[in-house]
Amino acid sequence: xxxxxxxxxxxxxxxxxxxxxxxxxxxxxxxxxxxxxxxxxxxxxxxxxxxxxxxxxxxxxxxxxxxxxxxxxxxxxxxxxxxxxxxxxxxxxxxxxxxxxx
Length: 102
What we know:
The chain is α+β, with helices and mostly antiparallel strands.
């Protein structure tokens, strides 16, 4: 096998080993930017709670996109625990927000 084809074969093997679906190389996202000041719209009624906005990582563009907060009616007896980014040895990971008994 000529040298240049060996290099291409090794490169293809490495990309395959480090690739996610469709051959996209997955890398952990960098630390997200600080959340902007968010103005809450008027509360629709006392039964609504505010779910704060947050950044969503877009791996295809390697950029964060801000998703604004919103009002919602919680499930009976539940309270919202906001999602957040955690720093790990492998980079930053998103921990989903969730409803919990409260």
